[in-house]
Amino acid sequence: MPKPSQQLSAKTHQRQNQKRQLQPLLENLHDAIALINNQGNLIDVNKRACQLFGLSRRALMKRSFSSFLTAFERESFAQSLRSGQSLIGELCLCSADRVQREVEYSLTPNILLDSHLLLLRDISQRKADMAAELRRQRQRIELFSEVTLKIRQSLQLKEILHTTVTEVQRILQADRVLIYQVFANGTGKTISEAVLPDYPTILDLEFPEEVFPETYQQLYAQGRVRAIADVQDSTFGLADCLVEFVEQFQIKAKLIVPIVQVHPQALSDQNQLWGLLIAHQCSSPRHWVEFELELMQQLADQISIALAQAQFLEHLEEVVETRTAELQEVNRSLQQEITDRKQIEAALQQSEEQLRLITNAMPVLIAYVDDQQRYRFNNKAYDDWLGQSPDAIYGSHLAQVWGVDCYPQMQPQIEAALSGQVVAYENEIVLKNGNRRSVDITYIPHRDDQQLVKGFFALTSDISDRKAIERMKDEFISVVSHELRTPLTSLHSALKILATGRLGTLSNEGQQMLAIADDSTERLVRLINSVLDLQRIESGQVIIDRQICDAANLAIQAAEAMQALAQQHGVSLVTQPQSVSIWADADYILQALTNLLSNAIKFSPQGKTVWLTLEQGQSEVIFRVRDEGQGIPADQLERIFERFQQVDSSDSRKKGGTGLGLTICRKIIEQHNGRIWAESFPKYGSIFSFTVPVLE
Ligand code: ADP
């Protein structure tokens, strides 16, 4: 068993052996290695450590490691050493020759008995490189943000290109930076340039197609970048055509990146070469570094974006221009429309004033009433009649203006007008001041473009005077007729007695005269009777006494009464009666029928037929008298129902008519709420029809 002292020396011996074996390896290690004792003094170092501390191995022995550290780091390192733990960190070493170095260290405590291993790696260069790279990156970012900002701020392509060349020239410290635009025909031109004052400018210089052949263009379009460190160096293969050019402009080195035009709407993904971003070095050849290449490429991309933007702007400007032109046109036509409208309004106002002047001067009520029965126009006569100003009436309802006495009488006709019918009627109105007036009222519906009734025009004229005259005239006729009838009847009787010959025989000539006198007297009596009949009906003296009667009976009675006259004229009278109950005054219907039959017989040539027929409708019976006579012209069909109207003025003489028969017929039928009318087919005859309501 060896003694402890023997044991210790054996250990030391073993350790020294290990150390000797490791020595060459540690010596040649790229990193610095130092062993320090518990006090922090250096007890062993390798060659790299000597370089790092700037002292020889001997000079370093027993020197405190902390003496190479700053005061602050010295304290923290001493603490780390005391903790006895492995450590990794960074320190700033100040070597003996006063050079400061950034080092990365790792401390492994007690690697040998009471000695600690310190591994040091000089990272100063790495840090400096990183700082330089960071600086470059910051510069690049600054440049990008500056150029990008300019692109955003400016939509002017020229300004953007100018900024790019100026900034690239500044950052790359190049002698000349330019933008060369390639045209469709292969020629090109320098359109923007930043050049140092010592060198000639090539701005606006145009190049023929040969300088930049299509094959080159295609290569650049595909993204080719050329970095020529020395134009004289044949390995760079400068095109022959460019040799003269580079010499002329003293170019020694050049860097070329393409600017491609991106078509956002292009179907193919093939981009078109728009131009080149070129940097020249004229002072000496230059080796272009990766960063410079990258910078140029990224700026060329920015220009591409600016180009697309400019193109878009151009398109936008075109659109704006077209839209502006369109808007201006719309504006012009609107202006015209406004002017036209103003003119129309002025014309309307003028014509409305004229209309108002004219209507105000008229003694009739003129108004326009809307579909809600409210006044929208009325003339001054309303003021005179109703004591209400046009302004007060405007917008008022008809019921409000006419009051409870008049409005209910007018209401059915107003409703008819608003349903689209032209209405004309006579009425008696009592005004608010108690005055009674006979009026003639006409309503004319007003329709819009869609034919919908929007209201009606109302014309009301005072016919009180005319009515009074008519009454006086009727009374006069009535009095005269009455006064004439009695002596005429006596005269007629006397003539009849004379004709019997009881009072003496007359010569042939005398008898002829007597016959004429008898005939004329008879016609006069008939005329007076007709006049009196009509006057009685019109004045309302006649009371129609309606009873249930059979239409067939009336037809038979009328035919029988006319049979003698028919035979006298050699005309056949045919009836086709049909039993239908009607609600009528039999005497008056008979009077109308006999009148129509007598006309038909009178106006039929000998040998012809007259028919009296009946037809039952839904709510009425139609009586028809048809003949095969001379017929009536179309324009006379309505007129013959007026007083004393005859188709031929000689009819009264030839046929013994008075021209009042049809007028009386119409009055009778109207009193029965029926209608009467004539139809005719000249040379084929006429049909006279009238309706009488059936008994419900
Ligand atoms: P008149 O007493 O003259 O017949 P009316 O009023 O009955 O009076 O008839 C008026 C006129 O109508 C007649 O004068 C005649 O010209 C014409 N008229 C009436 N009925 C007929 C008919 N059936 N055929 C042809 N003309 C007729």
Query: Number of DSSP strands?
Result: 23
| Poorly predicted tracts of residues | none
> What is the strand content?
15-25%
Secondary structure category:
alpha+beta
Q: State the helicity in percent bands.
A: 40-55%
Note the overall shape. rod-shaped
Distance between the termini: 160 Å
Bound molecules: adenosine-5'-diphosphate
Q: Average pLDDT across residues?
A: 87
Strand order of the largest sheet: 8-7-6-11-10-9
Secondary structure tally, helices: 18
Main sheet overview: 6 strands, antiparallel
- Please state the CA-atom Rg, rounded to the nearest Å: 66 Å
Structural write-up:
- This protein is of the alpha+beta class and 696 residues long.
- The protein has a 6-stranded antiparallel β-sheet with strand order 8-7-6-11-10-9.
- A hairpin with a 2-residue loop joins strand 4 and strand 5 (115-122).
- The longest helix has 72 residues, at 290-361.
- The protein is rod-shaped and about 210 Å long.
- Residues 595, 599-600, 603, 627, 629-630, 632, 640, 646-648, 651-652, 657-662, 686 line the site of adenosine-5'-diphosphate (ADP).
- Adenosine-5'-diphosphate is lined by residues 595, 599-600, 603, 627, 629-630, 632, 640, 646-648, 651-652, 657-662, 686.
- Residues 423-475 form the PAC domain.
- It holds the Pfam family PAS_8.
How would you concisely characterize the structure shown here?
Helix content is 48%, strand content 23%. It is α+β, with helices and mostly antiparallel strands.
Question: How are the SSEs ordered, and which strands pair?
Answer:
Blueprint: H1 4-27, E1 32-37, E2 42-45, H2 47-53, H3 57-60, H4 71-83, E3 87-94, E4 100-112, E5 115-122, H5 124-153, H6 157-172, E6 176-182, E7 188-195, E8 206-207, H7 214-221, E9 226-228, H8 240-248, E10 253-261, E11 272-281, H9 290-361, E12 365-370, E13 375-378, H10 381-386, H11 390-393, H12 398-418, E14 423-430, E15 436-447, E16 453-462, H13 464-500, H14 508-538, E17 547-550, H15 551-568, E18 572-576, E19 581-584, H16 586-602, E20 609-616, E21 620-626, H17 651-654, H18 661-671, E22 676-681, E23 685-693
Parallel strand pairs: 18-20
Antiparallel strand pairs: 1-2, 1-5, 3-4, 4-5, 6-7, 6-11, 7-8, 9-10, 10-11, 12-13, 12-16, 14-15, 15-16, 17-19, 20-21, 21-23, 22-23
Adenosine-5'-diphosphate (ADP) binds at residues 595, 599-600, 603, 627, 629-630, 632, 640, 646-648, 651-652, 657-662, 686.
